[in-house]
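Allow me, if you will, to draw on your knowledge of protein folds for a short while. The matter concerns a single protein, recorded as an amino acid sequence and a row of backbone structure tokens. Kindly check, if you would, that the fold set down in the tokens agrees with what the sequence suggests. You will find the record immediately after this paragraph.
***
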Amino acid sequence: MKSILVALDFSELDYNLLAYALKLKEIFDVKVIHCVHIVPASLFADRLKHRFPELNKHAKQKAIDQLEEITADIKKGLGEKVDVQVHAAVGTASKKINELVEQLDINLILLGKKSTLRGSGVVAQRLARKSKADLLLVPEGSKPYFEHFLVPIDFSDQSESLIIKAHQLMSKADPKQTSFRVQHVFKVPEGYHYTGKTFLEFSDIVKEQAIESFGQVKESIKSFSLSHDQLVLSLDEKNDAAMAVYHEALKSETDLIMINVKSHSAVKLWLIGSFAERLIHLNKKFALYIAKSPQGRSTDA
């Protein structure tokens, strides 16, 4: 991970986002931290733009000045260890951030999520759908700790790489202080009764299949070991896998939930429209890392 983008809005949450960025610098070989502010185009009525043709230019420059002020201490503290750059643009946040992701070859976007702000999460959902970069959503009040992880998987081709990336994120933490849970949310198919099995009996069959699949994932990971004690199996009886994940995070100490939005599973629960977006909407407490499949991205990601 060579390059990360931190989306700042000049609120108190900015300092938390920058703390996460510095933590990530310790874990990965981050070369550049890009601090970005997007001035909403909707702030300027058309009549103002006609009367003040330099309005966008002045707004961008003011944003640059504020970004320089916010990042001054970070630049001083880091010295030459990492390059901190600032950028400003006027327009739609998700569109402008995606443009910067392409231009700057960004590997990870850090974005704040405010529980009190109406409509918060819309930008995150758009970036989760369209951006090639990974996305780390940081809610208000969360702390930049990478010690207690919950990693929901569906045993698709991306499950192994997701677990490895999550383990890398917590690699700098004291092993005695960490916990790592791999969660699989499963359903009993509607036609189970045609097999002559009861609901509970068929639930046990699905669990056995999940345990077998987890064993295959364990065997394929060579860099570290997993145990079956780390596997959490959650029965989804309400057709809401995201809620099952969020409830599991609430039950035990959790710093970060890590998911993949590019799963190729046939189960619709794991598609971006029904799982990740639902989890983005529900989650107001935990940092949420949305990993993208490696197709079409730099191998440095």
The two ends are 5 Å apart (CA to CA). The longest helix spans residues 55-78. The mean pLDDT is 86. The longest strand covers residues 32-40.
